[in-house]
Design goal:
two-stranded antiparallel sheet, 58 residues, alpha+beta, 2 helices
Length: 58
């Protein structure tokens, strides 16, 4: 996982993660620690957009 900060807009951060497949993502988001994380950030973030991307270099 890599954390990026916008150079143009204050307060914009992006986590970039690489996963083996959709099953790995699904397994992760259903863990107790991830659910706790999501609950804990509800009051400090405005939006959480998730994009599933295809690596065009492969």
């Amino acid at each position: 996982m890599k954390l990026h900060k916008s150079l143009e807009e204050k307060g914009i951060f992006v986590f970039y993660e690489t996963w083996a497949d959709e099953n790995a993502i699904s397994t992760h988001v259903n863990t107790e620690h991830y659910q706790t994380y999501r609950k804990n950030i509800e009051t400090i973030i405005d939006t959480m957009d998730v994009y599933h991307l295809d690596n065009m270099e492969s």
